[in-house]
């Protein structure tokens, strides 16, 4: 597990019953996060739990919206793990600027925004008004490891 957290965001995560996992290692030729100026960009995170993708398949083909929301929430938790690994403390996050969501879905599926609310709702639960963000959500035919959802993020940092 990640090192012990300090501060107000750690306290908020504890209230929410969220324990951040260890930040996942990249599976290809990229870095998990980059800081430029006062922005932290976190690479897309899939719904990993215990070293395995916890939610697989496609929305609209056996994966229900509620399950997709849980997957998106877990992706955001993994985004936070990457942010904490890069920053040392999530208290350095001044605001969530943008989330990008990729939803593995059949062509007829149209509830991408509702699925991505799993991540957005978690951002607001953790950071309050500073968690309100711009967002893009798109449907894709497949994701790495057959993940149902992937979430990337941009944070303003202090």
TrEMBL record:
Organism of derivation: Muricoccus roseus
InterPro entries: Endoribo_LPSP/chorism_mut-like, RutC-like_sf
SUPFAM superfamilies listed in its UniProt record: YjgF-like
Protein name (Swiss-Prot/TrEMBL): Enamine deaminase RidA, house cleaning of reactive enamine intermediates, YjgF/YER057c/UK114 family
Domain Endoribonuclease L-PSP/chorismate mutase-like residue range list: 11-147
Pfam families for the chain: YjgF_endoribonc (PF14588)
């Amino acid at each position: 597990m990640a090192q012990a957290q300090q501060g107000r965001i750690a306290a908020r995560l504890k209230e929410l019953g969220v324990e951040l996992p260890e930040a996942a290692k990249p599976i290809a030729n990229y870095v998990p996060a980059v800081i430029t100026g006062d922005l932290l960009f976190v690479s897309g995170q899939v719904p990993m739990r215990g070293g395995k993708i916890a939610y697989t398949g496609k929305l609209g083909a056996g994966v229900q919206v509620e399950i997709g929301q849980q997957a998106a929430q877990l992706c955001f938790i993994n985004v936070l793990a990457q942010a904490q690994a890069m920053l040392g403390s999530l208290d350095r996050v001044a605001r969530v600027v943008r989330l990008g969501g990729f939803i593995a879905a059949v062509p007829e599926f149209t509830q991408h925004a509702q699925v991505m609310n799993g991540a957005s709702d978690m951002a607001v639960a953790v950071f309050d008004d500073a968690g309100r963000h711009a967002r893009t959500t798109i449907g894709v035919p497949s994701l790495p490891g057959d993940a149902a959802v992937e979430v990337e993020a941009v944070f303003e940092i202090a």
